[in-house]
Amino acid sequence: MRLIKTEEAAGHVLCHDITQIIKGVTKDAVFRKGHIVREEDIPVLLSVGKENLYVWEKQEGILHENEAAQILCRMCRGDNMHPTEVKEGKIELIADCDGVLKIDVEKMNAVNCLGEMMIASRHGNFPVKKGDKIAGTRIIPLVIEEEKMSRAEALTQGEPIFQIVTYQKKRSGVITTGSEVYKHRIVDNFTPVIEDKLKEYGVEMEDYAICDDKPEMITDAIHKMLDKGMDMIICTGGMSVDPDDRTPLAIKNVAEDIVTYGAPVLPGAMFMLAYYDGDIPIMGLPGCVMYAKRTIFDLVLPRVLCNEKLKAEDLYRLGQGGLCLSCPTCTFPNCGFGKGA
After folding, report:
1. Number of C-alpha atoms within 13 angstroms, CB side, residue 168?
2. Mean pLDDT, to the nearest integer, of 180-204?
3. Which residues pair with 209 in a beta bridge?
4. Which of 20, 142, 296, 308 could hold 303 in an S-S bridge, CB 3.0 to 4.6 Å?
5. Number of domains in the chain
């Protein structure tokens, strides 16, 4: 940096904050470190007693924080998001639509490990809404080596660290099981819960069936919904290990790919996920989904609606953070539930 006369400072970059003190009114930085001085700023600078200024000198191979911030943003920004204006080396990313945030965590960690730059975000694999802040990025020093930014870019291999994947309008069928419901001994209180969950993501229940506990009846109902073109089938109830609970057997009779029967999540340990014909999800929901506010269904449904084909490993990773604390005031998804290692 070098010292110059304030009258000659237009176009130069400040190396430190300039504080303005007006008794009883303000004591704050009138210009921040990194500010590019304009002609109209000069009278203000003189009024706060700055006859001379320390400014940054452009050097070969050295980037100003705002220049580097644009590069960092470019590395992070994927589909369906936009950046805020750059300020003091900082840019935030804002969601342009509803969807699920996907993060390449390995790349984000690798960039953060370089030092002098940072990326902070909300958790991936969770829903975001249009207008949500999803990440903040910043260059730490006033200037940074261009070569270091090039190394950071190379770590991303040309692919953005963040993406927002939009929901798909899947044709959904719901099969409620249980002799007590089938024989009208009790009212079906499960299906309305599922309908409400689907509506959170703009999805309507297009087909509905009630079945006894006989696995062949449930199997037949699943086949009929597939024949009608359902893109997703949800079976409720009959998911425990009791001899009378035969929904898992019915799902196994239909689906070629059984991803899991059981998951390290409470509520929702007896959850089942399978796929028919490669990409049509069939889910078996345990009874807790009916009465608990948030369960494994809330963790899985958004990702399924984004056409993500989940693997067993995706569910096994939910163990850390897989315990819902049933807080008196639920703040999900802005809590620890489902945020695994």
Report:
1. 13
2. 93
3. 175
4. 308
5. 3
Residue 339 placed within a domain: no
d(Cα 171, Cα 192) in Å, to the nearest integer? Answer: 17
Encode pLDDT of 200-232 as tens digits.
999 999 999 999 989 999 999 999 999 999 999
Stated pTM of the model:
0.85
The bridge status of strand 280-285 relative to strand 272-276 is: antiparallel
Angstrom distance (rounded) from CA 1 to CA 57: 6
Task: Pick the closest to residue 114 from 162, 155, 67, 65 (CA basis).
Answer: 155
Mean pLDDT of 306-333: 95
Answer whether the bond into residue 333 is a cis peptide, omega within 30°.
Answer: yes
d(CA 277, CA 256): 7
Q: How far is CA 300 from CA 34, 145, 161, 329, in A?
A: 45, 43, 22, 22
End-to-end Cα spacing for the chain: 44
Determine phi and psi for 169, rounding to 5 degrees.
Answer: -80, 85
Final residue in a domain of this structure, among 147, 165, 183: 165
Residues 155 and 189 in one domain: no
Please tell me the predicted confidence (pLDDT) of residue 28.
72
Residues 240 and 144 in one domain: no
* DSSP letter for each residue of 60-84: TTEEEHHHHHHHHHHHH--TTEEEP
Domain identity same for 237 and 265: yes
Q: Say whether 169 sits in a helix, a strand or coil.
A: coil
Residue 96 scores a pLDDT above 90? yes
